[in-house]
Amino acid sequence: MTDFVQLWVYLSTTPLFGLTATLLTYLLAQAAYQWLDQAPWANPVLWTVLLLASMLSLSGTPYPSYFSGAQFIHFLLGPAVVALAWPLWQRREELRRRAGPLLLAALAGGAAASASAVAIGWALGLPDELLRSLAPKSVTAPVAMGIAEQLGGIPALAAVFAVLTGLVGAISAKYLFDALGVAPAQIRGFALGTASHGIGAARAMHVNPDAGAYAGLALGIQVLLAAVLIPLVARLL
């Protein structure tokens, strides 16, 4: 047992630990997700986060030690988001015809997502710093952190809110769309990308190619709109 503990202490301090733990945990979660017929509640991102957080907490492994290896996967987030442009390029004529309605829908959806979060937080009496961190919750995490910093919020907390928003959307969207009778894959995807950014777009990609393409479009539009409009509106108010 002493040898095992010493081995664990050694491995947990090496960059390879974070990378290996993340890959293995996600592969297991993804296999379970496929085995469960891609049930929304079995979202592999959700279970990977929960399992890794539990493992780090129980083992007493400092987060910086873990992230020294996991940052290699973190780096791939940028290319993964850029790759979402390919299905949009394949549908460029269709998107060009619908440019006006899509832009208006994105503006309305982004405004509703941000304003409702801030309004609920204000009604619950949350501190001003938390409200500023909540405002960009429906934008992908790196951009949400930058916006929160401009607003005087807490960037790390904005990232947490963004991830939680994405997970809630990815898990609940199917049931909500079914209850509302929303059938077209394009509408489902666009709404999911608007409210739940990259995590929602990944879920849409798993379900339907058209839904994934429109979710990626919504994600990109929200990044542009939020980066410009949220700081502007905050200054006006």
Overview of this structure, please?
Helix 10 crosses helix 11 and helix 11 (155-180) packs across helix 12. This protein is mostly helical. The protein contains 13 helices and no strands. The protein has two domains: 2-75, no CATH class; 82-236, no CATH class.
Quick structural summary:
The chain has 237 residues and is an all-alpha fold.
> How much strand?
under 5%
Overall mean pLDDT stands at 82
Q: What oligomeric state do these chains adopt?
A: single chain
Low-confidence blocks of residues: none
Tell me the Rg in angstroms. 19 Å
Sheet with most strands: none
| H-E order | HHHHHHHHHHHHH
Question: What labels describe this entry?
Answer:
237 residues; mainly alpha; 2 domains; 13 helices; 0% strand
Draw up the topology in text.
Elements: H1 2-12, H2 15-35, H3 44-59, H4 63-75, H5 77-83, H6 85-90, H7 92-97, H8 99-123, H9 128-134, H10 141-151, H11 155-180, H12 185-207, H13 209-236
Helix pairs in contact: 2-3, 2-4, 8-9, 8-12, 8-13, 9-11, 10-11, 10-13, 11-12, 12-13
